[in-house]
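Help wanted!
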Amino acid sequence: TQLLEQSPQFLSIQEGENLTVYCNSSSVFSSLQWYRQEPGEGPVLLVTVVTGGEVKKLKRLTFQFGDARKDSSLHITAAQPGDTGLYLCAGGATDSWGKLQFGAGTQVVVTP
Amino acid sequence: EADIYQTPRYLVIGTGKKITLECSQTMGHDKMYWYQQDPGMELHLIHYSYGVNSTEKGDLSSESTVSRIRTEHFPLTLESARPSHTSQYLCASRQNTEAFFGQGTRLTVV
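Answered by r_m:
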């Protein structure tokens, strides 16, 4: 059973469009992170959110942590081909501080 | 820039061979992890360590073993490689929240 559910699994959009990726769980997390992974490389951290209701912006990317700290979303405005990649959310649960659990990921493809 | 290194980047090996995938980090992180990932798919945790002489099995059953004799080094060993072991293996380390990943080892067992 996947602790973190990501949706959609795959997203293909045109350059300039907006997109939102979701990460949901029945567990409460002390922190939640979003990573982006390009083919043949390891994931790279985009952002960490720790406070329920927190919103963080990173240029065209907006991250939101749910009030109950069980879910998160990533919104990309005016997507560019460079945004193409596998987007992974990862959570550190409050009762298992050592393990970092990853969602299955959302594959995003932005075409020119 | 992350200071975590995996070698080799690519490995093609015959069935039955013993292999060790190397992972080293120079950040002094206590927690280290091994994940298995097929292309474009989710990461499966196969081993993790909280520090020296601490190793735990992850959520995905694996025939591999790990050791943590030094803080900076977390090698993964397959005693007898099989085609089902063909995958990408990612090593990561972290101290607080952020995890730093190596570039991965792409293993092919023929």
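OP: Thanks! One thing I noticed: The first strand of chain B starts at residue 4 and ends at 7.
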